[in-house]
Design goal:
Elements: E1 30-34, H1 38-49, E2 53-57, H2 63-71, E3 77-80, E4 94-97, H3 102-114, E5 119-121, E6 134-138, E7 141-145, H4 152-165, H5 170-186, H6 191-207, H7 215-231, E8 237-242, H8 253-261, E9 264-267, H9 273-276, E10 284-287, H10 299-311, E11 315-320, H11 330-339, E12 344-347, H12 352-360, E13 372-377, H13 391-394, E14 399-404, H14 410-419, E15 427-432, E16 440-445, H15 449-452, E17 462-466, H16 471-485
Parallel strand pairs: 1-2, 1-4, 2-3, 4-5, 8-11, 8-12, 9-10, 9-11, 13-14
Antiparallel strand pairs: 6-7, 14-17, 15-16, 15-17
Helix pairs in contact: 5-6, 6-7, 10-11
């Protein structure tokens, strides 16, 4: 088999952004607002809440803005009873216009850009350099939602959902983070320890978000930091994480937490881009692709890479498709870490078999049809069908057998299992790319299925399930085929 060395460069796949979300510091900075409509007033309230020095050019009708100025403490809102002039935009940090006349709108945009001030025209996204999103305000925790002007109502609906998910108490925890951060920074800790502290903080905040943090919370967190610092020896750690069969929604919460705390992620070809999108943005990503019947990185090289990176004090996440303990060679990687004295944990994942069965709407066990479930590999180290399979067990009529990596060896498996007594009419299903948008499947009897694997697209992981518990999938496949022929 051709060997492939690990790709040591970062390999991020960030989908194209319609806009780049940014958060402006406006305290004491000049912002120009032209217009006097409801949109202008709402923008003025937001800008005032952010502490801007707001210059409002409202024409002859600025009463609402005068009321807002009286409500705000300090002299930060200045209302001018005239229309804007180009010179008014000099030194502005932002420029916002709620202007009805088309020619005036375009003149305002041109003047703002001449003054190098980013401009927003209310309800005219084509003329905007930036947009105001829908906000979830737990300041200093702020969540902004944008639909790039496509549907503000849709953004507001999403905001309402997030409002329900984020307790109001998070505001106090966010403020505590702001207040406690200088004390953490002053300790000049290694990055790993600082991150560990904030992970503890975030866990406590989310678990107890209905109340405000107390001094005892601060003391407990800093005591935990003291213990971490005392035990710090410069050695990193390794997490073997199951990425599931492909659908990011099937990741466990523990897997997401591991991805969010990783320094380096070593991932297989079978890991979907959607799963990687949930990882910490700053994490370095390295593909150590292991593909069946194709170029692969030697397992010994992966083991050495894991140990080398963790020895540098990194949190290394070894991200594997499905569950790391099912044909994921986790045992070899655990042994390598233990030999080097590196702590390692396993984060289980939804297996490919579980994902495929769920996608088919079947149970892999059944009181009448399958009292045993067995997972086997379709190829040995040589790439050939393993010689040491228990063929009597493979022929058990009361078992469901799941065969991993069986695309090339299924004919041989079928022949040996039938020779051992497996009923040729036993239902069997081949599922490619289970749970992913491009999932494809073929259902037939075990006698006929190997010849039908050619109906599957080239590439993509293939899983074969055999057993009478899969009868429903075979019947539905027959029904669909009958309809197609009719």
């Amino acid at each position: 088999m051709t060997q492939r060395r690990p790709e040591t460069t970062s390999s991020r796949r960030i989908e194209r952004l319609a806009t780049l979300p940014l958060f402006h510091k406006l305290e004491g900075r000049k912002v120009v607002l032209a217009g006097n409509g409801d949109g202008a007033l709402w923008k003025a309230e937001l800008l005032a809440a952010a502490g801007a020095e707001l210059q409002v050019f409202a024409g002859s009708d600025g009463a609402a803005f005068h009321d807002l100025a009286r409500q705000e403490s300090g002299d930060r809102i200045f209302v001018h009873a005239r229309k804007w002039q180009p010179d008014d935009l000099q030194d502005a940090t932002l420029a916002i216009g709620d202007i009805a006349d088309e020619a005036e709108r375009r003149a305002f945009v041109a003047a703002a850009r001449q003054a190098r001030a980013p401009v927003n025209i209310v309800d005219k996204p084509d003329l905007c350099d930036f947009a105001f999103g829908s906000l979830v305000n737990r300041s200093p925790l702020i969540v902004a939602i944008s639909t790039d002007g496509a549907s503000p109502v849709f953004g507001q609906t999403i905001r309402a959902r997030i409002e329900m998910l984020l307790p109001a108490g998070l505001k106090a925890w966010a403020q505590a983070a702001k207040d406690w951060r200088p004390a953490v920074q002053a300790r000049e800790l290694p990055f790993a320890l600082r991150r560990a502290f904030w992970e503890l903080f975030a866990g406590k905040a989310m678990a107890e978000s209905e109340r405000s943090p107390l001094e005892k919370d601060r003391s407990a967190l800093f005591a935990a930091l003291d213990r971490l610092e005392a035990n710090e020896d410069g050695t990193g750690r390794v997490s073997l994480v199951g990425a599931g069969p492909g659908d990011p929604d099937l990741l466990t919460l523990k897997a997401i937490r591991a991805l969010q705390s990783a320094d380096i992620i070593l991932y297989d070809d079978l890991v979907s881009p959607g799963v990687l999108e949930l990882a910490r943005r700053e994490a370095r990503r390295m593909m150590v692709g292991k593909t069946g019947y194709g170029p692969s990185v030697k397992q010994s090289e992966i083991n050495a890479l894991i140990v080398s990176l963790a020895s540098q004090g990194k949190h290394v996440v070894r991200l594997k498709g499905g569950d790391p303990g099912i044909f994921g060679r986790a045992g070899e990687e655990i042994a390598a870490c233990e030999a080097a004295g590196i702590p390692v944990v396993i984060v289980p994942g939804i297996s490919a078999a579980q994902g495929a069965a769920a996608a088919l709407g079947v149970s892999l066990t059944h009181r009448d049809h399958a009292r045993r479930l067995q997972f086997v590999t379709g190829h040995a180290r040589s790439g050939e069908l393993p010689e040491d399979l228990d063929w009597k067990a493979m022929a058990d009529p009361f078992a469901t057998t799941v065969i991993y990596m069986a695309r090339a060896t299924l004919p041989g498996f079928r022949d040996r299992a039938l020779a051992a007594g497996l009923d040729p009419a036993t239902p069997a299903v081949a599922v490619q790319s289970a749970t992913r948008p491009d999932e494809t499947r073929v259902a037939a009897t075990i006698a006929a299925l190997p010849e039908r694997l050619s109906e599957l697209p080239k590439g993509g992981p293939v899983l074969v399930m055999v057993g009478h518990a899969l009868g429903r999938a075979l019947r539905e496949s027959d029904t669909i085929e009958d309809r197609r022929r009719a």
